[in-house]
Amino acid sequence: MNVLDRGSAGSATVAVVGGIHGDEPAGERIVDRLADTLSAPEAAGGDGTVRLIVANEPALAAGTRYTDTDLNRAFPGDADSDDYERALAVRLADAIAEADAVLAIHTSHSAPPPFAIYSHLTESVRRTVTGMPIDYVLDSSGLRGTTLDSAVENTVSVEAGRQGSQEAVEFGYEAALAFLRAHGALADEPPSFTETTIVEGDEEVPKGGGDPHVYYDNFEEIPAGNVFARDDVYTHRVEESGVVPVLASEDGYESIFGIYGRIVGTLSPPEDVEGLSDG
Questions:
Q1: Domains of the chain: total
Q2: Model's pTM, two decimal places?
């Protein structure tokens, strides 16, 4: 794990984490760009800290999702574990434990648009989500409890785009800058806040094996009675209206086609910044 601290324009301590998965190199590239950006004198001036972290360096070097176990399924971790990522989870959580806000950068094989994920709706999380240029956020509080955003409550994950694409790097970098502005860590321009559509995660959609097919894109409502996805083992037919897929992918995950969710409302910007809101 590589940790770099940079100056902040404000008083908050914030963190940006990339490289949780070694086959998602965009996060490392974004962290490197931020390290260069935030070294400029005009980016500092406050008494806060911007902590930049590249998490899973061995997996990045190997170009694999993980070395022993999926880091984003290993929290809170075990410092005495022989599994590299399970021990790393403790170190990573400790490195950001005092942060007022954390942004974890991911990419996937799923289709655009980019979106955010949270497990705990704190005021810090509200500020992060509504301060980034995204239209959707997944409330994953009813899903896994072993991810970084479930283990460290002021954490938001952003799915920046397709894995391996330059577009994901560019969007993720701009989203990270927006995150820093939203928390006062970067003062190059005023922050911008908008309402964000909340999708509540219901359940993961299992994959069995064979030839996979997905018929609906992220956040596209699946009409009742229609098939979302199928392979040689499963045919997933949606029986109720209002269901939308998240992280929908034929080949991105070994064990799931994605997640079923429901649009449940919108997340408004924090009250102290509503005067700055675009939405």
A1: 2
A2: 0.94
* Same domain (yes/no): 169, 63: yes
CATH number, domain containing residue 188: 3.40.630.10
Listed as own residue / partner, the contacts of 62-70 with beta carbons closer than 8 Å and 24 or more positions apart are 62/22, 63/22, 63/23, 63/25, 64/22, 64/23, 65/21, 65/22, 65/23, 65/24, 66/21, 66/22, 67/22, 70/21
CA distance 9 to 210: 52
Are 155 and 263 contained in the same domain?
no
Tell me which of 147, 171, 194 is where a domain ends. 194
Domain boundary among 179, 194, 209: 194
DSSP string spanning 220-254? PPBPTT-EEEE-SS-EEE--STTEEEES--SSS-S
Give the span between the Cα atoms of 133 and 173, in whole angstroms: 11
Is residue 99, in this structure, part of any structural domain at all?
Answer: yes
For residue 167 the two structure tokens come to 């577009």
> Do residues 72 and 210 lie in contact, with contact meaning Cβ atoms separated by under 8 Å?
no
Query: Residues 172, 215: one domain?
Result: no
Domain that holds residue 187: 2-194
CB-based contact 231:213 (threshold 8 Å): yes
Phi then psi for residue 120, to 5 deg, are -130, 120
Tokens 């283990």, located at residue: 151
User: Phi/psi at 34 (nearest 5 deg)?
Assistant: -65, -40
At 132 the pLDDT is 98
Q: Are residues 143 and 254 in the same domain?
A: no
Query: Are residues 16 and 32 in contact, defined by beta-carbon separation less than 8 angstroms?
Result: no
Q: What is the mean pLDDT of each run of 10 residues along the chain (279 residues)?
A: 93 96 97 88 72 97 96 96 97 97 95 93 98 97 93 97 95 98 94 97 94 96 97 96 95 91 97 55
